[in-house]
UniProtKB/TrEMBL annotation:
Annotated source species: Natronomonas salsuginis
Name of this protein: Ring-cleaving dioxygenase
PANTHER family per record: RING-CLEAVING DIOXYGENASE MHQA-RELATED, RING-CLEAVING DIOXYGENASE MHQE-RELATED
Domain VOC: from-to ranges: 10-135, 158-281
UniProtKB keywords: Dioxygenase, Oxidoreductase
CDD domains cross-referenced by the UniProt entry: PcpA_N_like
GO molecular function: dioxygenase activity
Database matches in InterPro entries: Extradiol_RC_dioxygenase, Glyas_Bleomycin-R_OHBP_Dase, Glyas_Fos-R_dOase_dom, VOC_core
Family matches, as SUPFAM superfamilies: Glyoxalase/Bleomycin resistance protein/Dihydroxybiphenyl dioxygenase (SSF54593)
Key word Oxidoreductase present: yes
Length: 327
């Protein structure tokens, strides 16, 4: 590879595929307590919503985003995919989350221990594999809990990690190291995945700092309940360009920079087939809406605003859950 680029601080966002948009909103806002920071469209398919669920201020490392593609077929996790997405929650909060999942009918499994941390596995309504990981939240943590539905002592505080399933992990592990992740060790991973061993890599940032890698040749397919891509923070244009050059020098084929309105992006498939994105931290979700009004309106970036009437006609009516809504 080219000279090492400035290291990524960690995950920027994770984008997934859903089916029914209202069900997706209800689960991620009300059940899990994330803020709908941006209600927009898929810029490559404007007939589909793009929802952005974040902490209270839309900080980098907290955005779980979805393309709800209506009647899309069910996906299946396999090699070459982000198999699980994990969020941080405060220490001691998993009892609350299990009780909440019981109340809301959420499918969840037994707690497991990984690398000295307690993990609760569950699924969203489309079968997306998700995890909550208990961690100590420092006083200077950059995430701001959104507390409309969940109290601060249990609220989700951004990403913990993503888990990649790969047929041949070695080339991807080398790429992760070039991106600034350091190997933290390997441990047995029985029960919840087809792989025998889980290797953890850590970035230097405080949020979304881990990537776990598991070997498997199990086949998968894209569809509802699957991760579409994972984006890593390259905070500035200069850092993104350096990372793009490093990926290109490794024999990968990154795109040119694409303006996504709230960040600027570069995409490429890494060696195992997972779609990686490099995303800047600017201009941010509050660049076109006041912070206290995020998610209130359908935002159509750039050229799409001139097509508002046409686009709105093609989108399903949705209602954002409110804690103070009348029963």
């Amino acid at each position: 590879m080219a000279p090492s680029p400035p290291p990524t601080p960690g995950i920027h966002h994770v984008t997934c595929i859903a089916s029914d948009p209202q069900r997706n909103l209800d689960f991620w806002v009300e059940t899990l307590g994330l803020r709908l920071a941006k209600r927009s469209i898929n810029q490559d398919d404007p007939s589909t919503y793009h929802f952005f669920f974040t902490d209270a201020e839309g900080n980098p490392g907290t955005s779980m985003t979805f393309f709800p593609w209506g009647d899309i077929s069910q996906g299946k996790v396999g090699s070459g995919q982000v198999a699980r997405t994990a969020f941080r929650v405060p220490e001691g909060s998993l009892d609350f989350w299990e009780a909440r999942f019981d109340e809301y009918g959420v499918a969840y499994g037994d707690r497991v221990e990984r690398f000295g941390e307690t993990v609760l596995l569950f699924e969203d309504p489309d079968g997306l594999p998700v995890e909550l990981v208990e961690v100590e939240i420092p006083d200077d943590d950059p995430t701001i809990p959104w507390t409309e539905f969940i109290a601060e002592d249990a609220a989700i505080r951004g990403f913990h990690s993503v888990t990649l399933w790969l047929a041949d992990p070695e080339p991807t592990e080398g790429l992760l190291e070039t991106m600034g992740f350091e190997a933290q060790g390997t441990e047995e991973s029985p029960g919840d995945t087809p792989g025998d061993e889980r290797t953890r890599f850590a970035a230097e940032g405080p949020v979304g700092k881990y990537v776990d890698v598991l070997p498997t040749i199990e086949g998968g397919r894209q569809g509802a309940g699957m991760v579409h891509h994972v984006a890593f923070q390259t905070p500035t244009d200069e850092e993104q360009l350096a990372m793009r050059k490093a990926a290109q020098s490794a024999g990968l084929r990154p795109t040119d920079q694409i303006d996504r309105h709230w960040f600027r992006s570069v995409y490429f498939r890494e060696f195992g087939g997972v779609l990686f994105e490099l995303a800047t931290n600017v201009p941010g979700y509050d660049s076109d809406e006041p912070l206290d009004e995020l998610g209130e309106q359908l935002v159509l970036p750039g050229k799409f605003e001139g097509r508002r009437e046409e686009i709105e006609r093609g989108l399903a009516d949705v209602t954002v859950p409110r804690a103070d809504a009348d029963d």
